[in-house]
Amino acid sequence: MKPRRCLPLVLSVLCAAALVAAPAAAAAGSIATGKACYVAKGSEGVDVDVSGSGFTAGEAVFAQIPAPGGLSGFTETTVNPDGTLSATVEHVFPEGIQPVAEKKTMQIKGVLSDQILAEVPFRITNLAVKTVPPTATYHRVVTYIFAGFRPHKPIFGHYFRHKHLVVTHKFGKAKGPCGILHAKSKLFPGDGPRNAKYKVQFDNSKKVNPRAKPKIVTSLGAVF
Predict the structure, then answer these.
(1) Phi, psi of 6, deg, nearest 5
(2) 118 touches 29 (CB < 8 A)
(3) Cα(176)–Cα(219) distance, rounded to whole angstroms?
(4) What is the DSSP string of the chain?
(5) Is this structure's pTM higher than 0.70?
(6) Residues 146, 100 contacting (CB under 8 angstroms)
């Protein structure tokens, strides 16, 4: 008899049994959001959609968006038999109201495993415009800051007095997926009366179009 050879054999059998008994680890897949940047308008918020593949069929997962102190939103879904998933996190809002592109992360998290199985970055912004400083005399040069307009398209300001168009000004092209633009201009880029009241429509249309989308209509010189 050679008892020394029995121990490795016994250990091998036990290890094999342990491997069979161990639960399968959750599969990590890959995901993508439907847009690189989502634009929130007023109090509407946005619905952020996500799809992916390579996950464990039938597994319950959360689609969630982390935020300081908690989550911006989440929803639960079940992985399809082919390992794919799709979900929509509804009513997501930017952290602030400024015209900036905020960085966010979409995560897929196992309900039972409590593990992050996949994540992908995206951005969110407000449809917004402001000037720095927020108020000034009409002839003063200020910085206009835009966000949420159509990427790679020019932004125009249509200035009205008593409902009549007095000047249209081109600020430049919006950049990046969130349609951001910083442009310097006189607060009122025209030659009208200093004490007149003006309203302005900001949009991506060279000609005035009341149905233009996206658009912002506001009073000149106010905090937008």
Answers:
(1) -75, -35
(2) yes
(3) 27
(4) --GGGHHHHHHHHHHHHHHHHSPPPPPP-EEEES-SEEEE-TT--EEEEEEEESPPTT-EEEEEEEETTEEEEEEEEE--TTS-EEEEEEEE--SSSSS--EEEEEEEEETTT--EEEEEEEEEEESEEEEESSS--TTSEEEEEEESSPTTSEEEEEEEETTEEEEEEEEEE-BTTTTBEEEEEESS-S---TT---EEEEES-SS--TT-SSEEEEETTS--
(5) yes
(6) no
pLDDT of residue 223: 40
Which of 211, 126, 131 has the alpha carbon at shortest distance from 171?
131
Q: Which of the four pLDDT bands, split at 50, 70 and 90, describes residue 221?
A: low
Tokens of residue 91, six digits: 């009513």
Q: In whole angstroms, give the CA distance from residue 222 to residue 224.
A: 6
Contacts for 87 with CB less than 8 Å, ≥ 6 apart? 49, 50, 51, 63, 75, 77
CA 96 to each of CA 124, 143, 214: distance values in angstroms, whole numbers, following the listed order: 10, 20, 19
- Split at pLDDT 50, 70, 90, the class of 25 is low
Token pair 């399809």 is at which residue?
80
pLDDT digits (tens, 9 = 90+) for 98-112: 999 999 999 999 999
